[in-house]
Each structure stands twice: as structure tokens, then as C-alpha cells.
Amino acid sequence: MLGGILIRLFYDRKKGNHDVLYEAIDTVGEFSLGLFVSMSIITMKLWQLSDLGGPLFVLLISQVIFIVVFCYLLTFNLLGRDYDAAVMAVGHSGFGLGAVPVSMTTMQTVCRKYRYSKLAFFVVPVIGGFISNISNAIIITKFLNIAKAMVGIG
């Protein structure tokens, strides 16, 4: 991701029309994202979760309600209540319900219908991809250590 950002900044500084290059980058990005999402869905073994259908449905509905309220009341309002804030809130909802590729897909869908938001496509992947992965690793490790201590392992 950092390489893509650097390439984009390099070509933005060069004079001339780079629309063809950006269209090619967008096409490759959409193809890669679609391939990743497809491979993720194909590798899921949903039949193994058939006994958990009811509880998972309740969790899903709860999470959707929570993320919609959270993204509207906090993300959208705190980021300025403008178009960029709306696209970032949409990306946050995709991230909250799935992962960074889901947030990218939801933001692309909104931007295709209305207009592109450079700020959202810079902020959401960086925050979602880098910062949350690092913080998740720390939080998960802490909770695993707490669970081990409660059970008496290690």
C-alpha cells in the first residue's frame, strides 16, 4: 500500500495528463480486490457453522445496528458532516462489518455513484490496515494472556 501511495505521489508531481495511468491502476486495483474477496468467500466453510446459525444471526443483526449507529453518530459527525466524512463513514461501516477490502468495496460503490473522495481513500485504508492491525494484535495478545491466567495455563 505504501508503494502505491509513493507511486501516486510521484506521478502527481510530474507534469502532464496521467488519466490513462490512473485508469489502469484503478482497473488493476478493482481486479485485485475482486479476486481477494472471491478467494475469501470460496475458502469459507459455512456448512461447519450450521449449528450456530441462530446465534450468529443475532450477533450479525446486533453488529449491523451498532455499526450503523456508531458510524452515523460518531464517525460522520466527528469527521465534519461533509462528503468526505460520509465516504469515510461508509468505509468505516465496511471495516466494522468485515475488513479493509470490504471498506474499500463499499467506498468504491459510493464513489462510483457520486464522486471520488481522495481523503477517504487515503485515510480509511491506512487507519484500517495499519493502525487497527497493530492495535488488534496488542489487544488480542493481552486478552489471551488474561484468559490463560484465568484458566491457569502459563
Automatic annotation (TrEMBL):
InterPro entries from the UniProt entry: GltS (IPR004445)
Gene Ontology CC: membrane
Membrane-spanning residues: 20-44, 56-79, 119-140
Pfam families (UniProt xref): Glt_symporter (PF03616)
GO biological process, one term: L-glutamate transmembrane transport
Coiled coil: none
The entry's keywords: Membrane, Transmembrane, Transmembrane helix
GO molecular function: glutamate:sodium symporter activity
Protein name listed in UniProt: Sodium/glutamate symporter
Taxonomic source organism: Fusobacterium necrophorum subsp. funduliforme B35
Record lineage: Bacteria, Fusobacteriati, Fusobacteriota, Fusobacteriia, Fusobacteriales
